[in-house]
Amino acid sequence: MTEPTFPRISKRIAAIAESATLKVDAKAKALQAAGRPVISYAAGEPDFATPAHIVEAALAAVSDPKNHRYTQAIGLPELREAIAAKTLRDSGTPVTAAQVVVTNGGKQAVYQAFAAIVDPGDEVLMPTPFWTTYPEAITLAGGVPVEVFAGSDQNYLVTVEQLEAARTPKTKVLLFVSPSNPTGSVYSREQVEAIGKWALEKGLWVISDEIYQNLVYDGLKAYSITEVVPELADRTIMVNGVAKSYAMTGWRLGWMVGPLDAMKAAGNLQSHLTSNVSNISQRAALAALTGPQDEVLAMREAFDRRRKLAVAELNKIPGWIAPMPQGAFYVYSDVSGLLGREWGGKMINTSLELCDYILDAAEVALVPGEAFGPSGYVRLSYALGDAQLLEGIQRLQKLFA
Fold first, then answer.
1. How do residues 303-318 score in pLDDT, each as one tens digit?
2. DSSP per residue, 243-310
């Protein structure tokens, strides 16, 4: 029998890398299950329970037969209305329910946003450090991710000048993320305006990830690019969800908001890809967006306390630079001062090697900078209990004393 000459797995899918953050988190959980006292800062996941009124709405939804059936692929009408209201309230941008597509988590929204507007060979400007899923989603759409790097000296915020230097005739899309995962950095209104006007002038599409927009500190506001430059609304897709602000990562409920033609395209894709999101999760999200917000504010206050603690303690480690994040729940540290040195009897030259050493020697799990761009950095999530947060950093202090 003649063996086929084509590969068993498609080249497109075989080229996808596993999510680095989930990989590190899985390794940490496996070690914990084996009895090792590993403290993991890997997953971007609040440690709080989903607020009770949201869970109660889901329990009621389970008992209602109307939720046992297919519904519109793009989402329940009342949820899309609530998302449109939130977009006006928090993103300062008026939209209709027809401009909303409800997705299975923010990741699906990101994937569909790129799939809707990117053709093979189109370039996407991707401020770096970046969330691990962005380049994979761009590549799957046939696009070419173009890294635009800003280091700790710039508080990880790219400038118009850097973006313009990276732009070519093939550039179609700007990815804009504020607050940022992995850095927690937040662009000021003036920076958002400058970047938005530049994107408008160059005729670019913008995909704006706003999943952390309600997790900002020090009285700051995470400005949406369409609020500051309204003329961009016809060329901007906003992606968002309930996962981070409402401690609902496992409910898998996100959304995308944008021009009608782009949302029609994304909705068509979703009708074949997944159909509707679980109606139970949609009812829960409706309760989240329209119900009391006091528990959300309490979670944010806890994150605020933890970020200050984490930064203060990390900066006590010689060679470790931890800028103060203004949003999300991550500290993105510059650890280049620890590289090119011998630790534990072995020369450590990359942040990947450093994280492996830290996991083995201190039983602390961090995500290396290679997952988000250049080596020399590590991401720490402070979305875990105060006691564990401090204990893990004290282990690092002892390790690098």
1. 999 999 999 999 999 9
2. TTTTT-GGG--EEEE--HHHHHHHHHHHHHHT-S--HHHHHHHHHHHHS--HHHHHHHHHHHHHHHHH
**111 token code pair:** 């994937």
In this model, does residue 108 exceed pLDDT 70?
yes
Q: Residue 220 phi/psi, 5° resolution? A: -80, 165
Pairing of strands 254-257, 100-103: antiparallel
Average pLDDT over residues 104-124: 98
Residue indicated by tokens 């937040």: 186
Helix axes 77-91, 279-290, angle to 10 degrees: 40
Q: 170: which strand partners? A: none
Radius of gyration in angstroms for the set of CA atoms belonging to the chain, rounded to a whole number: 21
Q: Which two tokens stand for residue 50?
A: 């989903």
Those residues with Cβ within 8 angstroms of residue 14's Cβ, 6 or more apart along the chain or in another chain = 7
The domains of the chain, with CATH numbers, are 11-49+295-399 (3.90.1150.10), 52-290 (3.40.640.10)
Residue 308: partners with Cβ closer than 8 Å, 6 or more residues away: 324
Instruction: Dig out the tokens for 103 from the structure.
Output: 């997705």
Q: For position 1, what pLDDT does the model report?
A: 60
Angle at 379 between CA 356 and CA 385, to 5 degrees: 100
